[in-house]
């Protein structure tokens, strides 16, 4: 029961983390492209706070981040299987996401060069997707 | 290919040896949570890991692992005795 509850909490934090990332990047582009008032960017502080808290709760407390980024020499065979599976799924998701973003940016009405904000968001996603998959699916880490 | 479920007696034999999960994990070179997964039969070990478990528990591999649900040790002993015709 307790495990079930904490599993749900972890999943909520994962969703919060990725949602805040998307919200942060979207807000930046809305201000930039639609020329919303710069003061709207103050909202980024709240988004950043949610992002950091959910990052700690979803990936650092659960150790999933460490599991993905540690040397394979420090993992046993079960952990290796989990990490390799997570990387496989993360690769597929990330590739599809990148293609969608490239098409939206290249073909969309609001053509924009891909800048440092989006690039860092994608870099973060590339690093965190395998950890998110592990934290989402595994019973105990 | 979906692998078959492998049944085992790791938990009972480990307790028999008076070892904790952590101690067994250290001896066989895995994370102690992996021992939990093995004992709950939620993870099938590789052949190498199965041999390490067998060596550390001091029992033959066929007594620890099976592809069919395992009987209790007592039933197994009675069956063995009957096989060799011991009274």
Oligomer: heterodimer
Largest sheet of chain A: none
Strand content range of chain A: under 5%
DSSP strand tally of chain B:
2
CA radius of gyration of chain A is 17 Å
Summing up helix and strand content along with how strands pair, one would put the structural category of chain A as: mainly alpha
Which percent band covers the strand fraction of chain B? Answer: under 5%
Write the H/E string of chain B, N to C: EHHHHHEH
Classify the helix fraction of chain B into a percent range.
55-70%
What is the H-and-E element order of chain A?
HHHHH
Q: Count structural domains of chain A.
A: 1
Indicate the radius of gyration of chain B in whole angstroms: 14 Å
Unreliable spans of chain A are: none
Overall mean confidence score, pLDDT of chain B: 89
Q: Which ranges of chain B are low-confidence, i.e. pLDDT below 50, for 5 or more consecutive residues?
A: none
Report the count of strand segments of chain A. 0
Structure characterization notes:
Chain A is mostly helical and 141 residues long. Chain A contains five helices and no strands. In chain A, helix 1 (2-33) packs antiparallel against helix 2 (43-60) and helix 4 runs antiparallel to helix 5. The longest helix of chain A is centred in the first third of the chain and has 32 residues, at 2-33. With 87 residues, chain B is mainly α. In chain B, 57% of the residues lie in helices and 5% in strands. Chain B has six helices and two strands; from the N terminus they run βαααααβα. In chain B, strands 1-2 form a two-stranded antiparallel ribbon. The model of chain B has no long low-confidence stretch (mean pLDDT 89).
